[in-house]
Design a protein that fits this description.
three-stranded antiparallel beta sheet; alpha+beta; disordered N terminus; globular; 2 domains; 1 helix
Length: 259
């Protein structure tokens, strides 16, 4: 009799742990599916990117998107040397950094983001260097220059809020070559979320429900009626003694998505 009871209890224990392990595996699989959602075509916003300066394609079986960018802006700027077809004579107060753009230079940037990005449980501070890619093919930087604020470098920013430093052309302010007090797409950040101008397509005016990163969830001109999280240039003037009341910081962060 005792032997029978022991065997029965062993069987019950086996069944209990088997069910528990199976449930755990299924939950883990569901969690994995949530973080590796795949798609069969690129988000409509990617059609705005310059195909000469960027190569964008699905990767990792449709779970990620890879953006290969030339790093060269497709618009006029004083940082194209004199004689170049895109050379622009800037305002007399413009004091450029010594370097000019070179079509044969190596400014390439490659980033890979989730095809279906999601907000992370914790935010991540931006760092020095590129934090994203603009539709022009050039890099997006945050509101810092070197180890300090942007104030000291303000005079070197061209008409579209960008400069070269130390050797890569990049935007710090609202880039007027792409967006100027409007709802235009500017680019994509490294956490996979798109960034738009100061206005939102859902209301055709300045959004009032932005978080600390300038982001919110609403429809965009590229979301086909579906609400999705995205960033905006915050409608607050960036003013310093050297720059004056002319600029809007492009992105100060932190990242809201997973990196």
């Amino acid at each position: 009799m005792k032997q029978y009871i022991t065997i029965s209890m062993s069987l019950l224990t086996f069944l209990f742990f088997s069910c528990t392990s199976s449930d755990s595996i299924m939950e883990d699989a569901e969690d994995e599916d949530e973080t590796t959602e795949s798609v069969t075509e690129l988000h409509a916003a990617f059609a705005e990117f310059d195909t000469t300066e960027t190569d964008i394609y699905l990767s990792a079986n449709g779970t990620t998107v890879t953006i290969e960018a030339s790093g060269l802006p497709n618009h006029k700027t004083g940082y194209w040397g004199e004689g170049h077809t895109l050379y622009y004579e800037e305002d007399s107060s413009f004091d450029p950094t010594p370097t000019t753009l070179n079509e044969n230079g190596n400014y390439d940037q490659v980033i890979t983001v989730d095809a279906v990005p999601s907000k992370a449980s914790n935010t991540t501070s931006t760092s020095l260097g590129s934090i994203g890619v603009a539709i022009s093919g050039a890099a997006i930087y945050n509101d810092q220059e070197g180890s300090g604020s942007l104030d000291g470098a303000a005079v070197s920013l061209d008409w579209t809020g960008a400069h070269i430093g130390p050797d890569v052309y990049h935007y710090h302010l609202e880039p007027h070559a792409m967006s100027n007090d409007d709802k235009n797409l500017i680019g994509i950040l490294k956490d996979g979320f798109f960034i738009y101008g100061r206005k939102c397509d859902s209301t055709n005016t300045y959004p009032t429900n932005l978080d600390s990163s300038g982001g919110h969830t609403s429809t965009t001109q590229h979301s086909d009626g579906e609400e999705e999280y995205h960033y905006h240039v915050i409608n607050e003037i960036y003013s310093t003694s050297s720059l004056g009341d002319v600029g809007y910081i492009l992105f100060a962060g932190p990242f809201q998505g997973s990196l």
